[in-house]
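INFO batch 0412 | record 1 of 1 | parsing
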Amino acid sequence: MEVTFLGTGSAMPTGERYQAGLVVERDDRRVLVDCGSGVLHRLQQSSIGYENVSTVLLTHHHLDHVSDLMPLLKARWLAGEEFLEIVGPSGTKSLVDDLLSVHDYLEGRIDLRIREVGAHEFEVAGFEVEGYETRHSLPCLAYRFGDKFTFSGDSEAFEGLANFADGCEALAHDCSFPDEVDVDNHPTPTQLGEALSRSETDVGTVYLTHLYPHTEGRHEEMLESIGAVYDGDVRFADDLRTVEL
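INFO prediction complete | emitting tokens
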């Protein structure tokens, strides 16, 4: 399995990190998880290409996770692709219907299929996936791809989510701000380290993502904060980095 980080940033631009998105691939199967602003461009900058992504799996519906949905649909239509599946938590159909009501010239251009999932096991793009409800300001799902990879989506750090990733080779986890920022719905490094430590989670590597500009120039400090309470392998994710699992 390969995981390619397309966007490791947040709603506030850094200039280096686009908004949320990553691709999970195995053999000729692939799924795009989240589709924030800039993800369409990152797909084309990578070796993947938007023509080769026919399934999008959404963690939740905040703008920085869905804003390239219509650009992706339009690009696939103009490229002659005929199909796109969008899968996500409750409300995904209403979200897409509302977007199409604004951009109504895209209605019916391709075979668009929408499916809603929850905190349970399901199949998407040939992958067996399990969803888990996170702690965020909108309903949000973390996703686990077997024993290979877990993506937290947006969430506070808590023991249950860390346990959800137990046994995976890699966990990509929201770590939006450095320690001194008082924030809800996202974790700081110490909060994440404590959750991982309390759960005694056995994860190969933790990749930090969903990074706000506040984290720029603070990476070593953030890793030290996590390392003070959690002794696992922790690294920062970067746009266009591919991890083989």
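INFO post-check: The CA atoms of residues 91 and 223 lie 36 Å apart.
INFO record closed
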